[in-house]
């Protein structure tokens, strides 16, 4: 059963990545692009975890954790820049 479901989920998450990339490029203003970037890294985490489950490898989970930490820091930094115009006070 998982042999059919996991590739289907990978394709759907790949489609979500493509649509999010389109929102990142076409986004009408900066908050939309920040939200698309946040969604993009969340979708990348989901794809890595699902791929790790499919292959049975722990390496993909570690990469997903690194992307989660870096994505959170990046989102906070961009939001702080958008609010104040400066990242470091």
TrEMBL record:
The chain crosses the membrane at residues 34-56, 63-83. Its main location: membrane. The keyword Membrane applies. It is a multi-pass membrane protein. Keywords: Antiport, Cell membrane, Ion transport, Membrane, Transmembrane, Transmembrane helix, Transport. The keyword Transmembrane helix applies. It is found in: Cell membrane. NCBIfam families: PRK06161.1. Belongs to the CPA3 antiporters (TC 2.A.63) subunit F family. This is K+/H+ antiporter subunit F. It comes from Pseudomonas spirodelae.
């Amino acid at each position: 059963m998982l042999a059919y479901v996991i590739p289907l989920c990978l394709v759907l998450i790949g489609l979500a990545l493509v649509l999010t990339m389109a929102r990142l490029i076409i986004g009408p203003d900066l908050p939309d692009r920040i939200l698309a970037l946040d969604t993009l890294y969340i979708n990348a985490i989901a794809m890595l975890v699902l791929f790790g489950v499919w292959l049975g490898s722990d390496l993909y989970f570690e990469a997903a954790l690194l992307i989660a930490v870096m994505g959170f820091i990046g989102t906070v930094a961009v939001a702080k820049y958008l609010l104040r115009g400066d990242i470091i006070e």
